[in-house]
Amino acid sequence: MQRSAIQGKPFDANRSRIPLTLHPGYASERPSSGGRAVCNRIHGLIVAHTNDAIDLAENPDLMLNQALRGVDRTIRAARSDGARDGRREATLAAQLQHQRRAARGLRAEAERAVAAGRRDLATRALGRKAEHEHAEGEIEAAWKEPHDGCAKHKSRLDQLTTRRRDLCRQRDTLVARQRTAEVRRRTQWLPG
What we know:
Layout: E1 2-3, E2 10-11, H1 13-16, H2 34-57, H3 60-116, H4 119-188
Antiparallel strand pairs: 1-2
Helix pairs in contact: 3-4
């Protein structure tokens, strides 16, 4: 047996070993050699200090601010996409209205031509009316995509705005708690 330099007692490697039960491989049922025990203890110290450093580095206020910046970026992107779809929807709606007005005008023109006894003009007007109605159907089908997209963007924007409000509330609550704790810490050490 070796003697411990500090206490003068016999050194027992198995007795001085602190079992780490974090991982099944650390705590073996068989007694291990002295070198393995030292390695396990050093590993335990490294893990403990690493976890402590991570805990110190985690600042909830900074993490909430980062989450807010991410939500703000997403909100800007959703607004941009919504505005783009809104412009496209408005353009297609204007084209749709133009096609509908043209079709109504050509129908009235065909009715006037029939009343005047000009079947050839009425036939041409009805042919152009059919073309405008066909274009109207195509534009209406194309209009539905940005119209539905705008509705989705509005819904998503509402969700993001609610998420942002929640994050701001959490951050404000955390800041208030930190300030309260700081005031309590300062008042404890005041002579009274």
